[in-house]
Each structure stands twice: as C-alpha cells, then as structure tokens.
Amino acid sequence: MNKMLNNMEQKWGKYAIRRLPMILIICYAIGYFLQMVNPGITYALALNPYAILHGQVWRLVTWILIPPESSNLFFTLVMFYFYYSIGMTLEQTWGTFYFNYYIFSGILFTILGAFGVYGYSELFEKEVIEVLNAKMAISFGGRECAWIYGGSYYYLYFSSYFTTYYINMTLLLAYACTYPDMQVLFMFIIPIKMKVLSILYGILIITDVFYMINGGMPVAIALLIVGASVLNFIVFFFSTKNGRVSMRQKRRQRDFERKTTQPKMRIAKHRCAICGRTDEDSPNLEFRFCSKCDGNYEYCQEHLFTHKHFTRE
Q: Which of 156-160, 253-257, 292-296 has the weakest average pLDDT?
C-alpha cells in the first residue's frame, strides 16, 4: 500500500488541498450559522441515501457542513482548536497528499456506509420501513415526510448518524499513532499521553455500537454506521504489517527533507575592507586588491581609489 500511495503522490500530489483542517473548520462554522438561521436545515443537508437516489444529490457534499453537536460555545471553540492543531500537525508530518488521502477516504467510506445501510434496509427491513413511516406520519397528523427532509421518516432517522463525528475521532487516533508519547491536558487539568487517550476514544467508539444495538438498531446497521466511518483508520494503518511504522518513517522523512532543503549559508569570496559589502550582498559589484596597502586588503569599486592606504606604521 505504501508503494501505491507513493505512486499516487507523484502523479496527483500537486492537486492536494493545503490547510485542509482550516477548510473543515470553516465548513463547521458555516453549518453552525445555517443552524442558527434555520434549525431544521440540518435535515435537508444530511447524508440521506434514500433522498440522494430520489434526486437530492447535493447531500453527497452538504453533510460535511453539519457540525458536531454542542450546546456550549466555549467547548465548541476549544474542540475546533484542538482538531485544527492536530490536523495541521499531521498535514505537516505526513505531507499534504497523505493527509488529504486520509480525510477524503474517511468521507468516502462514510458515504459508502450510508448506502450500505440503505441496501440492507431495503433487503431485510422493508416491513419495518413501511410500519415506521406509517406510525410517524400518524404522529405528525397524517403528514408524510416532506420531500426536502428526504421523503422517508425511516431514513431521516438514520441520516443523523452519518456525520463527521467519527472521522474526527479517527483523526485523533491517527495523531496518537504518530505521536503516541505526546502529552495533552485532558479536561485542561489531567496530563495524559495520546496513546492512553486513543484507548479511551476506542472504548467510546465500541460503547456507541453497543448503545445503538441496545436501542433496537439491527447489529448490521450499527456496524455499518460506525465501521464505515473508522474504516479509513483501519485501512490506512493496518492494511500492511508495518502500517504504523510507515507513518513514523514518513514523519522522519519529512523532518529530514525540511533540514536538507534549508538554504545553506554561503561564504563570501570578496569583502570590501571599508564598507564591508560582499559579493553575496551585491553580485554585480567588482572587487580588487590594492597593491599599495601592506597586507591583503580588498576593496569594492567605489573605495578602490578613494581609500587611505594601510601601512604597518
């Protein structure tokens, strides 16, 4: 896989989007603004495969605008800064192309997971879909689900699970694998290493699956919702036997490239004994030695004939 990614980077690396974490934060900010203007607009933006197949193709992109749920503005800003900082660090460590690949593969797998839920539901939950839609229509006074909201109460419910929530979690897991011994302040108080924090996040992801199943969701659908969203992490780090090591090697490679590509300090060959200018400062300036001075004194063309000769006395 590493060889394949290297070949892809050589071909399409120039098209990679720089500062992608900042773009994602801007998308969230737009999503929060839209929610403030119209709280129900989320249902019209969500990743709903039933609605997409019925013409609402904009949902393939607009679901990325839906921000993580939070009623605390301060916590939201802190979360934005946290994910932005680790995202930018990973982009600088892996390179822009590798980071783009990781994020966009997570988005792609989430979309495929949504359509996987649609396929499973249409094959094995057809009766459940009809019953649920009928019950919800009755509870809303006999009104069918509005077209702008997807046209199906069943899929409207599941669309709320397909967000960037788990993609953000995989971002933290990736950071923990790259910098396992990095220490952060959990809850602004408790110092904790990233490898420990990643274990807590992994437990949280597994807990979400059991919570969905205990709530009556079919096991296959629960696994599709969560598994598809974290599949980019699994593929990116565990598809090869040295997946985790390769990312650390990538980090060392980037550090080496930054050090070796830094401009080396050049030593000037000529320096004027009067004004101190060199051939590096002024490449077009001419320099000559004075035969009347005692010692090897060199002067620029402006001071060659106007300087006071140096003598031993």
A: 253-257
- pTM for the structure as a whole: 0.76
| Per-residue tokens: 24 | 């994602």
Alpha helix (H) residue ranges in 239-306 = 243-260
Residues facing residue 190 across a β-bridge: 186
Phi, psi of 140 (to 5 degrees): -100, 30
3-state helix, strand, coil in the chain (%, to 5): 65, 5, 30
* pLDDT at residue 244, as a whole number: 44
Please give the structure tokens belonging to residue 44. 């019209």
Distance CA 253, CA 53 (A): 44
Q: What is the pLDDT of residue 241?
A: 45
Cα 220 to Cα 212: distance, rounded to the nearest angstrom: 11
The pLDDT assigned to 52 comes to 96
Which DSSP string do the residues of 87-124 spell out, in sequence order? Answer: HHHHHHHH-HHHHHHHHHHHHHHHHHHHHHHHHHHHHH
Residue type, 97: F
- pLDDT tens digits, 25-57: 999 999 989 988 998 899 999 999 999 999 999
Token output for 137: 């229509």
Q: Are 271 and 298 in contact (CB under 8 A)?
A: yes
Q: How far is CA 3 from each of CA 8, 242, 246, 247, 259, rounded to the nearest angstrom? A: 9, 13, 11, 13, 24
Q: Look at residue 191 and give its three-state secondary structure.
A: strand
- Beta partners for 183? 193
CA atoms within 13 A on the CB side of 123: 9
Q: Is the pLDDT of residue 120 over 50?
A: yes
